[in-house]
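Inverse folding, one chain.
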């Protein structure tokens, strides 16, 4: 790309550089609403979307109306210059077609389970046709001392335990619409999945494939959990497929049935097992051969791009439990992808792994499904910082998670927040998409300056895998934990010292690796240094490649102890190779000096906290720097590099480009920089000399005329959440006052139906299976109480599912069921309350509701120009007058505990002129300074320059409206459906709110006149 073209695109990025969010189709879909929402995506800066079935979907998945709407959205998106991407499953993980595949029992996921029996239990054990092998084992402190085959009815000897290995089916689950996950290692099962899903899209969407519909997303497919209860597995079971034993013998030359104890246990004194490594390798191969490759081939035959992500990325352990090696799956994706969950996830190697494969195998676009599980309290700075480090390490296709079609029922608890029109800050969100799109433009079509390859040691974890090694997706085994720690340390040492590197996956190395002129080549990438660290076993093919590399003079570094195994067999071959290469202690200084090419240096007190990526293209050098510390400024840092030319600062927030100050010293270019907390810098070293902008001279004088109280304006009516309810059944039985979701669960227990939740039966499936019931399960009366100290003149009631409401009364007043419009989302109907129906004292709102299996008890909301005070230890809502003014401080204690719109704080009359305003510590999603031209504040140092400022506007997230409102403590590491139904010490009857408002006094400085006149 010519520098002139890059500059033009940087100012106004094209659609290919923009994000495409997960669009959650989670209700009753209508064409009008879908097209309206596509327009909003465009306003938010997105260039497309993934049409993604989610919990709550009422329109039949893969039904006639589904395809009609898919096609209509694709056509409308094309008219708008956007892309409509498919998604290959009803919810996730991909593979079962919403349970339609696994209606056929032979296609269901299965496990090989280990069971232990005492001698007496074994004597009574009848045996089953699903048993594949039995052994008598002498255990000593959990390890095997002796093992022998055991026949049925043959009694174990003294000290022996009978151990049986048998096949079991996965249990049926509502998550798969009453069926199970699919056997992804079975070609017939996957072919049935392709017939029911992909081929239906081909028939129904026709010529749109490859045009307005560019591709399809696969989400979290896996080969089944290994020694883990995660995703329906067991700590005593491993994935199974009918061809397992035959394929194992064909590929590895021995009978796995005879060595099953070595897969589940270890002999005394042994820690690694070839059987474990070979078993996981076989599952990996079967999954790739029978799932990844057929789907990619089908996509290519039908002009579609294959993208998505597989389960689960965060650690070597998590990958081993669910997949084997995720790096190997990326080879078979056109746009390989990852899923980075939560806000504080610092598993940075997730992206480094995938970008390594993308570099090596020449894949331009690398996707991340990001922002999942982060909660309504996320602000735009948080979203920026979560995206920053991923962009740094190579993500250039953003799939924000999640944009809800509706908030109806359980959908509103589906891993909030909704990055969409339901959030008050959605108009400002475009600034983020513009920002990340500019980063993508800058780094596009450029070659990484990366000469170090780190051998990925995941097969050492495979060799240590055994029953009892894992708890969910984490290791509880000391040996695996050591490998994980060494893996993290290697990453951090290289990154902290500004050494770019790629990971080398052993299977990819075996097929794409070669040695040429003393360099190690993997696909299109070339490396001058190879680092081996934290590895216990190495493949023969890797040893041969590294030996050839060393013989040609390649720089081969072993940090720490070299592997003592080859193909999980004790061997000195790698250690001998290490002695002939460069062997160093695993120490930071040694690793840095052995791997650094000194192309780029950062110096300064906090320079190690600033990560860097460098690219080359034509005559330009492109540099991305990021302060990885989100909470502290890095201060002054000097960037030094061996370059000629002129450095420019490319501002991704504004799209502006300016020359920056530098000097030459000892033949190197030095550029002084400063970094606020979490701040990034984009630099371009170019041959052209751009005129340096005249430095702006400002002298600021702090003003002290801020009021104790502010005049203010709300963008929305105030909210009173009513989420404590008494329920009475039609037979007269009553439930005590409960939080609405607890009341709903108690009612469902009485009715004998399952609880709602993220993995509940899909409404579309319920309707298709059982039809629309003629009568409700019951009719209930729901009573919500609140107090009024002051009576609002006008007030509205907001509630869901109005079609099933038969009567509403407030005190003695019957309330009309006529909706006056919607509120925030199409699921919320707004009903005007007659004047005078709210009275001083306790008010009782009574709603009669026809309850169906697909319904649920939810909170209701009062809207109006009133204040709300929380009494009784923040358990009881009392309507009051709105405050006439707001103080700097927490608005939840000033009559606005549940408010989540915008508040404009009016500044006192200020002299005309230029002002620098700092607004920090608000817990708002972002801040606008309202002046001659509005200025947006969304990141440190939380300052804006404004001419003639009139007001400060805080734009809030919806946390204090939609919760969780009763979870203790308020802040959690991740947010999903379970956070809204906490129990025990994690639940409070009182409201648990996030403080928000002008929690710190704004700092306002005016430009001194003498500075302006100079």
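Residues assigned per position:
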């Amino acid at each position: 790309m010519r520098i002139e073209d890059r500059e033009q695109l940087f100012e106004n990025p094209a659609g290919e550089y923009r994000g495409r969010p997960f669009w959650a189709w989670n209700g009753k879909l209508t064409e009008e609403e879908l097209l309206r929402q596509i327009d909003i995506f465009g306003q938010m800066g997105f260039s497309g979307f993934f049409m993604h079935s989610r919990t709550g979907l009422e329109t039949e998945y893969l039904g006639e109306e589904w395809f009609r709407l898919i096609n209509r959205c694709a056509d409308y998106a094309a008219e708008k210059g956007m892309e409509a991407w498919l998604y290959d499953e009803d919810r996730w993980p991909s593979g079962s077609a919403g349970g339609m595949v696994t209606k056929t029992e032979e296609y269901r996921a299965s496990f090989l389970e280990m069971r232990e029996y005492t001698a007496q239990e074994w004597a009574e054990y009848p045996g089953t046709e699903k048993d594949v092998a039995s052994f008598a084992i002498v255990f000593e402190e959990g390890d095997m001392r002796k093992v022998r085959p055991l026949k049925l009815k043959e009694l174990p000897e003294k000290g022996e335990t009978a151990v049986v290995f048998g096949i079991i089916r996965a249990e049926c689950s509502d998550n798969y619409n009453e069926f199970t996950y699919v056997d992804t290692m079975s070609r017939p099962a996957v072919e049935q999945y392709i017939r029911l899903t992909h081929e239906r899209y081909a028939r129904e969407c026709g010529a749109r494939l490859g045009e307005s519909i560019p591709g399809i997303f696969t989400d979290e497919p896996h080969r089944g959990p290994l020694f883990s209860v995660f995703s329906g597995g067991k700590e005593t079971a491993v994935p199974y497929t009918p061809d397992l034993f035959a394929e194992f013998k064909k590929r590895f030359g021995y009978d796995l049935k005879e060595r099953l104890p070595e897969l589940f246990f270890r002999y005394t004194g042994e820690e690694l097992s070839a059987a474990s490594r070979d078993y996981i390798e076989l599952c990996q191969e079967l999954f790739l051969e029978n799932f990844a490759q057929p789907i990619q081939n089908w996509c290519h035959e039908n002009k579609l791009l294959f993208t998505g992500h597989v389960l689960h990325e965060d650690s070597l352990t998590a990958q081993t439990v669910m997949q084997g090696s995720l790096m190997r799956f990326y080879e078979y994706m056109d746009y390989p992808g990852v899923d980075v969950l939560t806000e504080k996830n610092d598993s940075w190697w997730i992206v480094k792994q995938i970008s390594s494969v993308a570099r090596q195998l020449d894949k331009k676009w690398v996707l991340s499904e990001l922002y999942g599980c982060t909660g309504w309290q996320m602000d735009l700075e948080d979203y920026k910082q979560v995206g920053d480090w991923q962009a740094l390490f190579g993500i250039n296709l953003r799939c924000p998670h999640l944009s809800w079609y509706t908030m109806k029922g359980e959908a509103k608890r589906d891993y909030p927040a909704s990055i969409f029109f339901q959030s008050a800050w959605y108009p400002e969100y475009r600034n983020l998409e513009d920002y990340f799109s500019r980063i993508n433009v800058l780094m596009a079509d450029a070659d990484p300056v990366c000469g170090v390859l780190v051998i990925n040691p995941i097969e050492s974890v495979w060799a240590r895998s055994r029953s009892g090694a894992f708890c969910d997706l984490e290791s509880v085994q000391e040996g695996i934990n050591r490998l994980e720690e060494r893996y993290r340390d290697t990453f951090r040492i290289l990154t902290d010292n500004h050494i770019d590197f790629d990971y080398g996956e052993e299977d990819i190395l075996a097929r794409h690796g070669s040695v040429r002129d003393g360099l190690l080549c993997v696909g299109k990438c070339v490396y001058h240094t190879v680092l081996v660290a934290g590895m216990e076993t190495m493949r023969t093919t890797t040893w041969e490649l590294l030996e050839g590399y060393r013989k040609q003079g390649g720089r081969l570094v072993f940090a720490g102890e070299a592997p003592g195994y080859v193909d999980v067999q004790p061997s000195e071959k790698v250690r001998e190779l290490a002695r002939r290469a460069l062997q160093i202690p695993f120490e930071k200084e040694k690793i840095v000096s052995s791997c650094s090419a000194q192309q780029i240096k950062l110096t300064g007190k906090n320079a190690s906290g600033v990560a860097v990526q460098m690219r080359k293209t034509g005559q330009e050098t492109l540099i991305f720097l990021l302060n990885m510390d989100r909470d502290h400024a890095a201060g002054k840092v000097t960037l030094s590099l061996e370059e000629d030319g002129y450095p420019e600062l490319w501002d991704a927030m504004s799209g502006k480009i300016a020359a920056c100050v530098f000097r030459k010293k000892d033949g190197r270019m030095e550029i002084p920089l400063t970094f606020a907390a979490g701040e990034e810098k984009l630099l371009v070293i170019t041959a052209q000399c751009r005129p340096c902008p005249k430095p702006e001279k400002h002298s600021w004088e702090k003003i002290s005329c801020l009021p104790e109280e502010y005049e203010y304006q709300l963008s929305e009516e105030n909210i009173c959440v009513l989420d404590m309810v008494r329920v009475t059944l039609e037979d007269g039985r009553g439930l005590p006052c409960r939080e609405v979701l607890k009341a709903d669960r108690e009612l469902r227990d009485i009715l004998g139906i399952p609880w709602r939740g993220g993995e509940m039966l899909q409404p579309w499936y319920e309707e298709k299976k059982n039809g629309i019931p003629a009568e409700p399960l019951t009719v209930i009366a729901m009573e919500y109480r609140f107090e009024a100290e002051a009576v609002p003149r006008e007030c509205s009631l907001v509630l869901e599912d109005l079609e099933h409401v038969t009567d509403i009364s407030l005190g003695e007043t019957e309330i009309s069921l006529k909706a006056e419009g919607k509120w925030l989302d199409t699921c919320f109907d707004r009903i005007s309350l007659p004047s005078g129906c709210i009275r001083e004292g306790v008010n009782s709102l009574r709603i009669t509701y026809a309850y169906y299996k697909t319904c649920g008890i939810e909170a209701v909301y009062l809207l109006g120009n009133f204040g709300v005070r929380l009494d009784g230890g923040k358990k009881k809502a009392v309507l009051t007058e709105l405050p006439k003014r707001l103080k700097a401080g927490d608005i939840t204690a000033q009559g606005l505990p549940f408010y989540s719109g915008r508040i404009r704080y009016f500044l006192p009359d200020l002299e005309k002129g230029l002002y620098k305003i700092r607004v920090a510590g608000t817990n708002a999603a972002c801040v606008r300074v309202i002046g001659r031209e509005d200025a947006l504040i969304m990141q440190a140092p939380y300052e804006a320059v404004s001419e003639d400022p009139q007001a400060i506007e805080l734009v809030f997230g919806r946390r204090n409206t939609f919760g969780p409102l009763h979870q203790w403590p308020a802040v959690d590491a991740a947010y999903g459906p379970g956070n809204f139904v906490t129990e025990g010490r994690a639940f409070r009857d009182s409201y648990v709110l996030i403080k928000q408002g002008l929690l710190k006094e704004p700092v306002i400085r005016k430009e001194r006149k003498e500075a302006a006149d100079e």
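Residues 900-1013 form one domain. DSSP finds 24 helices and 61 strands in the chain.
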